[in-house]
Sequence to fold (90 residues):
Amino acid sequence: MDLSLHTLLAGPILRRAEPKQVSIWIACSIPLIIRAEIFRVADLEPISGTQNKNNTEQAKPIGLGSATCIRLRASLYWSRNRQTDSTGRN
Fold:
């Protein structure tokens, strides 16, 4: 029987959302650095006349964050990643 674990065990789980900050939880089987970007839905809408299905190449993130995982047990690492508003807008 193969008892190897997937790298991503649980998540991402949206833990908290506020106007200026989002908190995401992730559980992994190995230590990782978790990076995340937050985009406005309107910025990801398709551009008419293009082959791209969405505008992710041109859209700019409105929030950025990164975090390292902490070890809870053997083969269990947890991260709480907070992305904060990078635009300065309310």
Q: What stands out?
A: Strands lie at 8-18, 21-28, 33-38, 63-68, 70-73, 76-85.
